Structure formats: C-alpha cells, structure tokens
Amino acid sequence: MRRGVVAAALLIAVLAAVPALTSRTAVVTWLFLVLLHAGIAQSWNLLAGFTGQINLGHAAFFGLGAIVTRTLWLGGTPVGWALLAGVSAALAAGLVIGAPSLRLRGAYFAIGTLALAEILRITTGNILPEVSALSVAQLAGYSLMPRYYLALALAIAVTATAWALAGSRFGLGLIALREDEEVAAGIGIPTFRHKLLALLVSSLFAGLAGGVFAYYHPSFYPAFAFNPLWTFDALLITFLGGVGTVWGPVVGAAFFVLVREGLALRLTELHLLIFGLLFVFVVIVFPGGLMEAASTLARRLGSPAKAKMPRIEQG
Amino acid sequence: MLEVRDLQVAYGDQQVLWGVSLEVREGEVVAVVGPNGAGKTTTLLTIAGLLRPRGGQIAFLGSRIDGLPPQAIVERGLALVPEGRRLFGTMTVRENLLLGGYLPRVRPQRAARLAEVMDLFPVLAGRRHQRAATLSGGEQQMLAIARALIARPRLLLLDEPSLGLAPRLVRRVFSLIREIAGGGVTVVVVEQNVFQALEHADRAYVMSNGRVTASGPARELLAQDEIRRTYVGI
Amino acid sequence: MTILLQNAIFGALVGGLYGVAAVGLALAFGVLKMLNVSHGELIMLGGYLSFWLFTLWGVDPFLSLALTAPALFLVGAVLYQGLFSRLIRFPDEEKLKSSILIGFGLALILQTLAILAWQADERAITTAYTGQVLRLGTLVVPISRLAAFALGFVALGGLHLFLSRTDSGRAIRATAEDWQAASLMGIPVRRTYLYAFGLGSALAGVSGTLVSIGDAISPSIGLSWTLKALIVVVLAGLGSIFGTFVAGVLLGIVESISAFLLGGVYREVVGLVLFLLILSVRPAGLFGRN
Q: Looking at CA atoms only, how far is residue A298 from chain C in angstroms?
C-alpha cells in the first residue's frame, strides 16, 4: 500500500511539473482533458462502483455545475465563488433527484436520472439558446495554466476521495449494500442514507468538473453541458478502466483522450462509433475493464498483483 | 425406466446432493420422502433438466438425459409438476392446458387430450375460462397435474402435490395418483406427507441431507419403527 | 375552447404512436426482463427505411409497413443474438442493468451510423395526400395522421390476437410469466426470447414508419422516442396492450395541451416531468398489474 502512495505522489509531482517542463500547449491541453475526464468519470464511478447505482443522467450534475459557474463567472464573480456556487447547484440537484429515486429499484434510478438530464438540457436550450462566449478581453488574458492546475486539483481530490472511501467503513457499507441490499439492511446499514450520501459526493464532484469545464472552454452552447455524451464518456471511461476500482477511471481517461485526440477522429463522428462499439464490447466481454486485464496479465507474467492501489471490487 | 446414478448437485459453491441414486421401473409408483431440505426437490428439478448436475448420470428409457434442457426432456415423455404448481396464473385454465400440449408431437391430438383430461377432472371443465390464479388450492393442483398429463408423459414427477391442501383433498390427490398409475403412467412422488405417500406407493426412497438413507418396498419402510417414529410420528 | 380541442386531437393522434412505441418496448421488457434503451433508435431506423423506400422507389409509406416491420424484426433478432442474449444467464437485477448499459451504447452506435450514412439533416416524406384534412365543424383532423393512428391501433390489435389466440403467442406470454415452467411445457425459451425481442423491434419499425408519415425524422430523434416509450410504460404498467395505448394517447393529449398553455418549447419537458412525478408516487403505473 505504501508503494501505491509513493507512486501516486510521484505521479502528482510529475503532472504538476509538466507546464514548467514544456511549452507545447498541445501537451498541456491533452493532459488537461485527461484530468477533466478522469474527474468526471471518477465522480460517476463513486456512485456506480460502490453502490451499483447506474446514473444515466450524470450530465445533469456536470451541466448544472458548468452553467452556474459560467453564468456567475462571466457576470463578474470571482471564479472561486462561481465554482462553489456551481458545486452547490449540483449538490442540490443530487438531493432533489436522489431523495425520491433512490428508494426505487436500480433501473428506475437509471431512467429517472436520464429523464432529469434531458429535462435540464431541453430547458437550458430554451432559456439560454445563445452561445456562451468569452469576451475579447477575457480571451486576451486567457491562460491555460490555472485551468490545468484546477483540473489537476479536481482529479486529485476525487481520486483521493475514492481511495479514502475504499478503505473506510462507509465504503465497505456501500459495497455491502451493492452486493445485497436486503442483507445489508438486515445487519443494520442505513441503506438509503448511504446511497444518498454516495450520490451527493458523486454529484458534488460532477458539478466541480462541470465548473472546471466552464472555466476552461472559450465558447459553447449552454445546452451542450447537459449533452448525454458527457454521461456516456463517464460510463465508457469508467468501464474501460474498471468500474469500482480507484485507478480505473484515471487509466480509462488517459486511454480515452489519447485515442480521441491522437487519432484526430473528432472531425468525423467515427470516434463515437468506435467508442460505442468499445463500450458494448467491454460491458459484455470485459466487465473488469483495463485494470482487470492488467492485473490478469501481471498475474500471468508471474509477478504479484500490480494494481497500484487497493482495489475495491468489481462493479 | 429411469435410472439415477450417483447424482451430485450444487447451488454455486454449496453442494446439496451427495451421490443420490435411485431407480424407477415402468408402471410403478415410487415415493421419495424425507425432511425439509433433504434434497428431494433438487433431485426432481435435476431430473427434469432445470438444474445441471456436477456429477453422476441420469438415464431415461435407456438414454442419458443429464445435461439436456427441460424442453428436450419433456419431449421424451418425462413431465414434472413442480413444487408450488407453477401455473401461469394470469392465463386461463384452458390456456394452461393448451400450453401443456405445446409439444409438436402432442399438438395433433391436443383437442382430444383436452377433452379426456376434462373428463378426468370435471371441476376444471366448469372453470375453463377462469384465470388460474383465482382457483382454489385443490383446483390448482388438479390443473397442474392435468396440464402435465396432456402431453401423455410416460413418467410423471410430482413435487409435493399435497402441499397446502386440506386432508380431504390430500386423499383425493393420492387416489388420483393411483388412478393415473393405473392408466399406464409411471409416477414418482416427492412428499413430506410420509404416511400417505408410503401408503399409496409401491416402492420408496428416504432421503436426508442430500443422500438416500433408505429404500425398499413402501410397505416395509412404513413398518420400520425408525421411519414411523421420525417421520410419521406414530 | 376549440383551440384546446384541436390541440387535444393532435395530441391524441401523436399519442397513439407513443402507445405503439411503448408496447414494443414493453414486450421485450415483459418477456426478457431487459430494457432496450435503444428502442428509439430502432424507431428512427424504421422511419428512415420508409423514407428511402419512398424517395428511391416511390413506395407509399403506408405500404412500406409490410417491409419495415419484418426488416426491423430481423435487426432486432440480430441485436438479440449478438448482444442481449449473452445476458440471459445473469440474475435479474444485473441483467436489467447490463441491458440498460448495452442499450445506451447501442443507441450511440446506431445514431452515429445514421449520421454517417445519411447526414444529420431532417428528412420528411411528402406524398400527394400529405396536407389533406378532414373537417369536423371548426375542427381539423389531418388525414394521414389519422390513418397512421388507426393503423397503429390495428397493429396493436393484431398483436393482441397473436398473443391470445396462437400457440406462439401463448408461449411468449407463458415465458414472460415463468420461464422455467414454460420450459417444462417444452417451450424453447431462448427461441421465444428471440421472437419476443424481434417482435418488439418490429413494432419499433412500425412506429418509425407511422412517425415518418406525419413528422420529419433525423438521427437524433431516438432518445426522445425512447423516453416517450418509457414514460408510457411507466404510466401504464405492464398489464395490457390496450391500457398502454390509452396511456400513450393520454400522454399525447397532456403534452399538446401543456404546450399550448405554456409554450411549444416545453412540450418535451412536460412528459418528462410527469414521468418523474409518477416514478416518485406510483412506480407501478396507473393501469399496471405489476
């Protein structure tokens, strides 16, 4: 375990040093995207990996964080407060949707969150149909550096949360209720409260990721922040890396951004097709994702399990 | 007719049958008795194909049937009336019976079989358009047995047919079993009602904790003190 | 008042299609206990098929039903064999969730394929009778939409007869209720699953054709229709085909009237909000026997 902490610290140090080591904005941008996507995927993983609840409307929290942050920040509020407001909005939404729908069966939660995200997307598209763009002055003073470090902080915070959760009693309680809710309730775990708390933490970080996105992007249509593709990306990345593992979303995010940006397929829709196929493939064949593949490979090669961090369990 | 040899069955990691062997000859009525959890139902479910054995063999009419799906087994003339009847509650009596005759080999004679079965169970004839779930316990048992008979099985497996029935109906069910046997169907009955089962059967097996602990002519088993004391309470 | 009634009529006509879409989704859900959230994309494909049949070979969309239904049946069968069939051994909860995930991915795949093949623009079918209306006093009823509504109803009627009068139909119902007992009757459970899924997809194809008659189609309509179907299924429960149809019509009417009162842009939102409300209050639906 100590080895894992050291490795993580090294990784963080390296990432922190990157902007100083290179002047190529492409590299920094790529890393930014990896960190952002790791953030949004990990936030989804916090709920799905631990409790087994599939949130198909994750974009709702991301989007709320993005819109509130963007609106306040462009309106003159210092970005720190704007981010806080965005996070609060996402948290509030988590409470509003969580309280009723977590009492239902998992499938209802999945569809319910999907419906919620759609409501927000359509409503936002109606209320704020125009592009949200940075002013000329803001563009002139735009620097990637603070955005980068913000994304790094996000990724560190959410991954650290996942790691802490994995080792905590609360986390174990969540896993217990994921495996068998009735049994968990029977041994005294307050299942609803646990699920709700997990959802709130998940929505909090999703909102933060949204805020980071809002702070980063020069111009976008507000409704885009609620696009189901954000949810899909989170699912894909998490499944690729391994649902329920601490490092899965991070590894998955790296893979995802590399493939997407590296192959420059973004210009056509082809990358969506590839990712869709990949996702379906992983769900059916490889529920353990890249992390499981890696540790299986490591085992086959004879060395002890090489997972960098204590792995929770399969989702 | 039916030969079960050294059957090993497990639910996940939990082994429940430890080498169960039994034999059923044509024309017999065989009872399988024992306490709750002895593995009687598991044995029937495995024979019928709903469970896959970990080890052992099941042969019916000379050929192996272990590992075959239930559809193939019922095709060969082996029918199961499961515990709790498992009727299609939202469907009518008539529809349930029609489904009993789903097999291609039965379909041509289905109408005739339906009429025959209605004769055997007049109470069903009067309720043919009633939803199965609204029938009384006894009527449901009749329907479940009737449904299995439509396909003219050579071997009929009955799992706890008397469960939840009033004593009068229990007697009726067992006399029905003898009637069916008289009609040329070999019957295996799993029962917790040991006395009635042994009274009406030719041979019997006693199971406990996933194993066969005793077997022999029903009359002899009934006479054994230990059986009487443990299971019959006399 | 007349405007309200007019809106209600339009809403009811669209709602009939919601009902057909919902029954298709409910069929797979009821029998296989799997939720295909790419159902809307199958509807979209059905619509495109009708569009191209019309545009390339002049096939009247109503007639194209004879082609889109079996075509989408095949698509569904392929999707089942290739993907969903791998889930049937899973325990119920996991099976449902995995099917939702696969459907989610499938929706993206199908939508992207449609964009790549036919671009993202809207397509509309304009026939000789497209603008024709029936006049009832001051009220106007578009004939093609009325015919689509009627055909949808007839299709559901046909499904009902199939399920209640034929052996295959009874086999499907039996498998939906208790697949183990069904297998004891000699019913080939896996094959029944295949047929049920194919049938649900065929209904999606029918929905798509009927949609293309009155509305424009584009690759992105899938999600919206999946949600509509889901809303209606949750509204109606899984009990009866007719109940689902009525629930669809009701949804259509509610949407239309709300859009009129609150503004057209909120048409979609109303249904979704209603959906969330019902989920929190009565998940089994209004008519459901669940």
A: 28
Domain boundaries, chain C: 23-218
Q: What is this structure's pTM?
A: 0.88
In a domain, A202, yes or no: yes
The interface pTM score, or ipTM, of the predicted complex is 0.90
State whether residue B144 sits within 8 Å of chain C by CB: no
> Are A272 and C276 a contacting pair at CB < 8 A?
no
For residues C50 and C69, what is the distance between their CA atoms, to the nearest angstrom? Answer: 10
Q: Testing the interface with B: which of C166, C178, C184, C193 to mutate, by most B Cβ within 10 A?
A: C184
User: Which residues form the domain of A145?
Assistant: 25-300
Whether the CB-CB separation of A91 and A99 falls below 8 Å is answered with no
Q: What crossing angle do the helices spanning A79-101 and C267-281 adopt, rounded to 10°? A: 50
* Residue A297 banded pLDDT, cuts 50, 70, 90: low
The predicted-structure confidence for B55-64, as pLDDT tens digits, reads as follows 999 999 989 9
The residue of A55, A124, A128, A280 whose CB has the most chain C CBs within 10 angstroms, and thus the best one to mutate to test that interface, is A280
Domain count, chain A: 1
Task: Say yes or no to pLDDT of A12 above 90.
Answer: no
**Dist CA B195 CA B231 (whole Å):** 8
* Contact by Cβ (8 Å): A242, A252: yes
Instruction: Give start and end residues of each alpha helix (H) in B49-160.
Output: 70-75, 93-100, 110-120, 122-125, 137-150
**Does the pLDDT of residue C237 top 90, yes or no?**
no
- C170 vs B contacts (CB less than 8 Å): 91, 95, 98-99, 102
- C289 to chain B: closest CA residue: B90
Closest chain B C-alpha to C236 CA, distance in angstroms: 17
Q: At A53, give phi and psi (nearest 5°).
A: -80, 125
Contacts of C279 in chain A (CB under 8 A): 100-101, 104, 108, 112
pLDDT in tens, B171-211: 888 888 888 888 889 999 998 888 888 888 999 999 988 89
Alpha helices of chain A — where are they, by DSSP H?
A: 2-21, 25-51, 58-74, 79-101, 106-127, 136-140, 144-167, 169-179, 181-186, 191-216, 228-241, 248-262, 270-285, 289-300
pLDDT tens for residues A106-153?
A: 778 888 888 889 889 988 888 888 888 888 877 888 888 888 899 999
Closest residue on chain A to C105 (Cα) = A276
Q: Which of B71, B82, B95 sits opposite C186 (nearest CB)?
A: B71
Q: What are the chain A neighbours of C231 within 8 Å (beta carbons)?
A: 115
Instruction: Give the number of other CB atoms < 10 A from CB of residue C210.
Output: 32
| In-domain check, residue A85 | yes
Nearest CA to A235 out of A268, A203, A278, A296 is that of A278
* Position B233 confidence tier, pLDDT thresholds 50, 70, 90: low
CATH code: domain of residue A236: 1.10.3470
For residue A272, being part of any structural domain is answered with yes
Determine phi and psi for B207, rounding to 5 degrees. Answer: -120, 150
B97 residue type, one letter: L
Rounded Cα–Cα distance for residues C143 and C250 (Å):
20
Provide mean pLDDT across the span A270-286: 85
Q: pLDDT category, C286, cuts 50, 70, 90?
A: very low
Residue A8: inside a domain, yes or no? no
Q: Which of B42, B102, B106, B159 to mutate to test the interface with C (most CBs of C within 10 A)?
A: B102
